[in-house]
Amino acid sequence: MIAYKRILLKLSGESLMGERQYGIDENRLAQYASQIKEVADMGVQVAIVIGGGNIFRGLSGASKGFDRVKGDQMGMLATVINSLALSSALEAVGAQPRVLTAVRMEPIGEFYSKQKALESLKAGEIVIFSAGTGCPYFTTDTGSSLRAIEIEADVMLKGTRVDGIYTADPEKDPSATKFTEITYDEIYNRNLKVMDLTATTMCKENNMPIYVFDMDTPGNLKKVLEGQQIGTLVKK
């Protein structure tokens, strides 16, 4: 039994660094590609959004004197680099990826449209959405929420290095406890840093569930798709 038929998987750019301080760790990339191929072979329709923080983050660039719009555009290009890297890794394991960009940049990637994305998903291709929303002032979390809603995904899976949502940062507070389920409003009220508020609000208003789990442990993505309770579900 498959818990979700169509998913939007959000990966952070920082996670691609693996043990490195910057850039892309080939081992982590290959590990992700294997996990994604595994669930695609189960018949799950997989769409992916990757951040760009391992290369450049627009908001931090703005704090160092970059124009915010240009900084965000640089961040969008960083997500394209990561998307191409994942696409190559997926091809290496025998999958069929397709990169769609929110900004025109053929032949690097095809320009995004909902129809094109749905056709690819139904054909069994793994669709990678890059360049965020194509607009500045929006994070890749918001881009993930937008794309998940547009393609009518069953769930937005947020793959992190933490195994769910806690009452506090478990890496800083050893007394923090984990939620199995939590509502969008509880996230607001507790000021939990799951995603930015725009992304969370979009999911709430469009009834898009979010599932936060540890993607860095091999096999976890398959466990989520099998319905195993290894992370935290966010819903109304």
Question: Strands, helices and their partners?
Answer:
Blueprint: E1 6-11, H1 26-40, E2 45-50, H2 58-63, H3 68-92, E3 97-101, E4 110-111, H4 114-122, E5 126-130, H5 140-150, E6 155-160, E7 181-183, H6 184-190, H7 197-205, E8 210-214, H8 220-225, E9 232-235
Parallel strand pairs: 1-2, 1-6, 2-5, 3-4, 3-5, 6-8, 7-9
Antiparallel strand pairs: 8-9
Helix pairs in contact: 1-3, 5-7
Explain this structure to me?
The protein contains eight helices and nine strands. With 236 residues, it is of the alpha/beta class. 37% of the residues lie in helices and 18% in strands. The mean pLDDT is 95. The protein has one domain: 3-Layer(aba) Sandwich (Carbamate kinase). Helix 1 links the parallel strand 1 and strand 2 (45-50). It starts with 5 loop residues before the first strand and ends with a strand.
Short description:
The protein is α/β, with parallel strands linked by helices and 236 residues long. Helix content is 37%, strand content 18%.
- Counted beta strands: 9
Q: Roughly how much helix do the residues carry, as a percent range?
A: 25-40%
Widest β-sheet, arrangement of strands: 4-3-5-2-1-6-8-9-7
Radius of gyration: 17 Å
The fourth-level CATH homologous superfamily is Acetylglutamate kinase-like
Strand content: 15-25%
CATH architecture verdict: 3-Layer(aba) Sandwich
Counting H and I runs of at least 4 residues, what is the number of helices? Answer: 8
pLDDT below 50 for ≥5 consecutive residues: which ranges? Answer: none
Q: Helices and strands, in N-to-C order?
A: EHEHHEEHEHEEHHEHE
End-to-end Cα distance: 24 Å
Briefly note the structural class of the backbone: alpha/beta
Quote the average pLDDT.
95
When the domains are counted, the total is 1
Shape, principal axes of CA atoms? globular
